Amino acid sequence: MNQTNIKKLIILIAISGLTLCIANAQTFKGSHWTARKTGDAYIVSIQDKASILEALTDFVTSRKIQAGQITGIGATNEATLRFFDPSTKKYTDRIFNEQMEISNLSGNISEVEGKPVLHLHITLGRKDYTALAGHLLDARIRGAGECFVYPMDSKVIKAKNEEIGLNLYDFEQ
Ligand code: FE
Q1: Distance from CA of residue 148 to its chain's centroid?
Q2: pLDDT, tens only, 149-164
Q3: What angle do CA 69, 74, 79 make, to 5 degrees?
Q4: Residue 15 has pLDDT above 60, yes or no
Q5: Which residues are CB-contacts of 39 (< 8 A; sequence separation ≥ 6)?
Q6: How far apart are CA 152 and CA 154, in angstroms?
Q7: Å from CA of 45 to ligand 1 middle
Q8: Residue 71: closest CA among 161, 170, 145
């Protein structure tokens, strides 16, 4: 192989490498979120002042994600936590209106009655460095909203368990 051909080969390898990189990192946009897909995972940025639940539900619906795992960090100034009492099967909701760090957001994606449902829990850091934690009903981003979503290749269904009063995994469906 002469020098010109070697040069041509190097350019060809560089172009195909770049094309592969671009194809491997696609970007997406939706209602109050932007995302980049890297490999099988997504990095999702939730817009300032947007609802976490609305943005992530719009994201999983638009990307047709039926199951998977969510993790995240960021900040909020309005969060509603929900506490479930199995003995009464009742919920108590409490709203926290203050600037807080989302020190951890973790949850999963499944399907309930044909619709994608997110089950999210959150740990919030207050100004005095104490933490609040619980089941997340919703929170409004104030600052950054940085999530990672790991889709799974299967459909995972939850169904209402009347005895317990919650949607639980139903692997028979
Ligand atoms: Fe929960």
Answers
A1: 6
A2: 999 999 999 999 999 9
A3: 90
A4: no
A5: 24
A6: 6
A7: 23
A8: 145
**How far apart are the CA of 5 and the centre of ligand 1, in A?**
62
State the distance from the centre of ligand 1 to the C-alpha of 121, rounded, in angstroms: 6
Count Cβ atoms below 10 Å from residue 33 Cβ, excluding itself: 23
Q: Can you tell me the distance from the alpha carbon of 98 to that of 89, in angstroms, rounded to the nearest whole number? A: 29
d(CA 141, CA 122): 13
Distance CA 94, CA 69 (A): 25
Q: Which of 97, 93, 91 is nearest to 79 (CA)?
A: 97
Cβ neighbours of residue 146 closer than 8 Å, sequence gap 6 or more = 43, 44, 45, 46, 72, 73, 74
Give the model's confidence band at 173: pLDDT under 50 very low, under 70 low, under 90 confident, else very high. confident
Q: 12: CA distance to ligand 1 center in Å?
A: 52
Q: Tens digit of pLDDT for each residue in 83-116?
A: 999 999 999 999 999 999 999 999 999 999 999 9
Query: Terminal CA-to-CA distance of the chain, rounded, Å?
Result: 60
Which distant-in-sequence residues (6+ apart) come within 8 Å of 37 by Cβ? 25, 26, 27, 28
Give the per-residue pLDDT at 19.
52
